[in-house]
Amino acid sequence: MFLVLLSPIIAAIPLLMETRLTVPISAQTLDAAGEKIKAAVAAGAEALELRVDYIKTLTVELATTLIDQTRQITDLPLIITCRDKKQGGANNHPTALRLDVLVAAVRAGVEFIDFEYANFLATENREVIEKALAEHSHCRLIISAHNFKTTFENISSLCRDIETVYPAAIPKLAYKVNHINDCFEAFDLLEAKTRRAIIFCMGPAGSVSRIIAKKLGSVVTFASLDAADATAPGQLTIGEFKQFYRFDAIDTDTQLYGVIADPVGHSLSPHIHNACFAAAGMNKLYLPLWVAGGPDQFDEFMDHILGRKYLGFRGFSVTIPHKADALEYTKARLGFVEPLAEKIGAANTLIITADGRLKAYNTDYSGALDAIASAMGIDWQGLKDIPVALVGAGGVARAIVAGLADVGAKVKIYNRTLKKAETLAAEFDCESAGLDQLKNLDAKLVINCTSIGMHPKVDATPIPAEYLKSDMVVFDTVYNPAETLLLKQAAQIGAKTIDGVSMFVNQAAAQFRLFTDSPPDTTLMRKTICNWRIG
Q1: What's the pLDDT score for residue 17?
Q2: Which domains does the chain have, with CATH numbers?
Q3: Which is catalytic among the residues 323, 343, 410, 412?
Q4: 202, 409, 518, 522: which is deepest, by most CB within 10 A?
């Protein structure tokens, strides 16, 4: 009915020219909403979404009052959303009321209203919204579609359908991902679009899509005031956006880096690398990349990355459980492999050159030996003939065993799976044993190379306290928390302890040099860890 009017409307309506960091206000009362609005403005919000569907006693008058109240606090752009319960709304408000609220919002002068695509297809709903927008050309319509279970069957087709049914619309497409590899179709759609849209992935595996939304040109990305105020799964807080992920500095030219891990939530690598990038004035951003699964999932992820130069990824830190996967992937793609990484059989650092070539390195080796030698007041050669008990047989263990074997230490590897311990020991001419033999522990230096005791499972330890002795030096490669239960119990009996922070900083500093060809600020790295670590 009103489609004939759309062309001049599209030209007349202002559109946000860069991605706005938008905070949803999900309060049940006007007073609570006012406090949240003030907090969002103080935190640096660039737009607000008033989720009026959260108001249980919603009326048109209440919604209008909320808009007026907001305008008295701030002139930030406003999105008014009264979400259908079936599409993630907080309350089951009648469609007629929701439409009346949106029409009132348009008349009140808001910049955007959001309505669900499934409901917009109904002629009676569409005509109400089209009429209001035709009479008030200052407002844009966001037509949204959500899938809270999985990916859309064809997201590109869905986006085209939305634009066909209402050409002036801003499509908003949000879907749940169960693996990071499901994010790439969202990235591709944003990259391919000639007009603006809002596209992101929900759930922890999709958080990266929210962070790089600004690089890819999404109209907005949403951030909650705090974790309790999140209005969708995987939504980050505005503090995380501003402090951790340097949102204000992101642009289309930002180069991307990240830590590949499973799990990844515990990692402090984004904090320290982003802090160093900021201090050095570099247009680089470091991301947490939760690559769940084994070699197949890792390979698929890397194929996605290398096939999309527009993303601008230039390097990765790689940790549990993908260090061996990183090495094998690089070799399979005929990339450069540092001889030390080849010897260790694991890579913890990947570099993507400007021409798309892969390079693999291992910085765990020197990071660990430097931490041990420094704490013991000796140089590397002073470790010769020292009896070492090492727990674990994964990527970190391989690097440390390689280093200790090089300097002539007498290493015995303990592991839950004896076969893995035997295989690793055979490669480096060491001894091996199962964890049941820890009761006979007899070593000067004891090292934990497993993730046992890492946040959030801080009440676990790889070595029972009764097996520790006061004349031992106990090193835990876990750095979050810095003082693990293993180190606490060792200190209680008078043993010397080495936490994982020193090794972590040492290897991260080496990675930073590989990422940037510049020296890192290790003092800033240590300070950042102390400020942000959990535990």
Answers
A1: 59
A2: 3-252 (3.20.20.70), 263-361+506-532 (3.40.50.10860), 365-498 (3.40.50.720)
A3: 323
A4: 409
